């Protein structure tokens, strides 16, 4: 059994994804076990005692012995502090909508726990152990997806996690593939709910943790789809016998953008050895191209000169996506290993002190999520444009219109409507990509007057990534179909590059050439699956 040892310092994005999605072993879906080191246990006890000492000394500490939000000046007597936790959690359980996928809440539980391991939140070791007990037992709170403004933490969403931990009857949980009432599961497992002590209700809810969980999982999926987008573009270039010169190292070196340089290098590796992307192949006039070919006054065919932007400028566009991905990944990783609570406790030379601040605010995550979804939309846009070009003989240099099967040319529709579907997803992305972070709406009588809307940004990022997976899948199908139709006419010039040959063969393991119209959705879903699980990109890049 794999284990994750948390210390707040070195939790990787890959391990968060592992904790969220588990791993396969002998056909079983397994999750790692979470543990705290003895050093972290001692640290948590030290900071908890420090907080209790400050309370005993009479310090007034926001959210510890005061109310929250506009009630910040309301003092809570010591004997009512535990009761305050019981009021706080159900009153915050106002999230609405569909339940987030179990993987998102698994990630959020791990991330909130990792934040506590700094000690600065001042929560008890017992609370951390209870989160671990729930996670390790597979008792995962059901959390509705909407209701957070991305500041003061994802309050409404995280409250549902606390509701499960404290055994509030109306709360439901995922357990062994079912959604069940928390009390029923606790009775069945013999696990007990926890009663929260001073500050702990606020500590659980006071971080942009679901924003991070959503964004981070989408980011991880974006890495895979970006790798696959280069493969799709390379196959499309092979289908139209594109010009490799656009990816020449000298072109990208003089502009000095690392993303473009790296993308062009990747593309050169993919079509290395291609005989399609040569002048000799382009000089072959395909049957459907003959009536479209232009000739000079001597009757010689005019050269192509340059491919359309969506083919020729792929590295410049995708290079910017590469760089956006790097930026956002750094933002997310910093947040993974951060203390995101308020107030926070700090050790001083002469003891401990508490400081109120805004580490719960989702602004950095919101900006990164918005930036990444906008970057991914550029990928989607250019991918759909290439697919569109492939469906017309006039822009594909002689491929059959709509890439249709030629067994019944008068009856076949081909891939025409698949391109419509891609266009629909691209247009939907344009709406989803409206930046959430530019909006703000005051809450708590203007005490909490500027919010990030980061959870909305992260939820929409997740949808954009899913749409992009489908758009790239459709381009792969179209490009493979285009390559299929040119093989007989190109002869020896039909040879693909080293990487593109692997990609074409792998796609053909799942989707046959379409010689006659058929139910295309099945093909799309198969290709989306090999994009999603990374098997296509792993196969091509690991060779």
Poorly predicted sequence stretches spanning 5 or more consecutive residues: none
Query: How many domains in all?
Result: 2
According to CATH, the fold-level topology of the largest domain is Fumarase C, Chain A, domain 2
CATH architecture of the largest domain: Up-down Bundle
Helix tally equals 21
Principal-axes geometry comes out as elongated
Observed structural traits:
Fumarase C, Chain A, domain 2, Fumarase C, Chain B, domain 1, two-stranded parallel ribbon, elongated, mainly alpha
Structure characterization notes:
The chain is mainly alpha-helical and 543 residues long. The chain folds into 2 domains: 3-207, Fumarase C, Chain B, domain 1, CATH 1.10.275.10; 216-541, Fumarase/aspartase (Central domain) (Fumarase C, Chain A, domain 2, Up-down Bundle). Helices cover 54% and strands 8% of the residues. The chain has a 3-stranded antiparallel β-sheet. The mean pLDDT is 93.
Short description:
The protein has helices at 13-21, 38-56, 81-92, 102-116, 125-137, 155-165, 182-189, 200-205, 209-239, 249-253, 258-270, 279-283, 309-312, 314-336, 363-390, 393-396, 416-432, 454-490, 498-508, 520-532, 535-541; strands at 3-6, 23-25, 28-30, 33-36, 96-99, 140-141, 144-146, 172-175, 178-181, 344-348, 351-355. The protein is mainly α and 543 residues long.
